[in-house]
Amino acid sequence: MSETTNQYRRKFLTSIVGAATAITIAPGVILRQVEAKPAGEAVTDKVRWGMLIIVAKLTDGGANVVKACKQEHGWGDEPHSSPEQKTHWVRKVKVTEKLTKHTFELPIMCQHCETPPCADVCPTGASFKRADGIVLVDKHICIGCRYCMMACPYKARSLVHEKLHNQKAYSPRGIGTVEACTMCVHRIDNDQKPACVEAEPEAMIFGDLNDPNSDISKVLQQFGGKQIRADLGLNTGVRYHGI
């Protein structure tokens, strides 16, 4: 790998996270999340950040998640994009069980895989995974080839087709580059939770999957959580309860 690529990657490797909130996953089970780490602490693989989405507690099947992400990052309002070219960092999906006809809705975003297919196929190294498990795109070296979009089994990435205005300084975007959920890495690196988690505090738990004593790990152990397309063996950082 070139030194230039490594230099760009190092720009993303800054600090770590936290926050504290109360969340109820079942009657009588109340958790208080305390995940903070000192600002400025280097990113390491000791931590693997993840999210658990409790589908039954979502507001309008995840519409609030989509809204929070749009507001935080400024995507989705590109005026000239056709429906096929609309940006989507997260989208609400309706699922219907074939036998029972039971339906439910949930948000799907980048699943932040332990072994991300997008990074495997990227010819420039623009798609990569941080040591703490967050999958990102380095816009400086993304060439817009869209190999990562084809490789992603969750259809979680999109290409910017037009010039952008009024961008967020903390969430740079650019025409001809691929983008997707960043798990609000700019917030994580400043001791905050992702915007979607703050918007849905009763339905989403954020924390360290590597720590067996973290709230997210305790809930997964007690109540379980599923990966979408677990058969692919990607060990996703986003899990779901109630699907």
Keywords summarizing the entry:
243 residues; alpha+beta; three-stranded mixed beta sheet; two-stranded antiparallel sheet; 11 strands; 20% helix; disordered N terminus
Give a description of the structure:
This protein is an alpha+beta fold and 243 residues long. The chain has one domain: Alpha-Beta Plaits. The strands form five sheets. It has a three-stranded mixed sheet. The chain has a two-stranded antiparallel sheet with strand order 1-2. The protein has a two-stranded antiparallel sheet with strand order 4-5. Strand 6 and strand 7 form a beta hairpin. The N terminus is likely disordered.
Give the beta-strand count: 11
In whole angstroms, how far apart are the ends? 40 Å
Largest sheet: 3 strands, mixed
Number of domains: 1
Number of helices: 7
Helix content range: 10-25%
Q: What is the H/E string?
A: HEEEHEEHEEHEEHHEHE
Question: Given the C-alpha coordinates, what overall shape results?
Answer: globular
Low-confidence stretches: 1-23, 25-37
The strand line-up of the biggest sheet is 10-3-11
CATH architecture: 2-Layer Sandwich
Brief characterization of the structure:
This protein is of the alpha+beta class. It has a single domain (3-241), classed as Alpha-Beta Plaits (2-Layer Sandwich).
Q: How are the secondary structure elements laid out?
A:
Layout: H1 3-12, E1 20-26, E2 29-34, E3 49-54, H2 63-73, E4 90-96, E5 103-109, H3 117-121, E6 127-129, E7 135-137, H4 147-151, E8 158-159, E9 178-179, H5 185-188, H6 195-199, E10 204-208, H7 215-223, E11 238-241
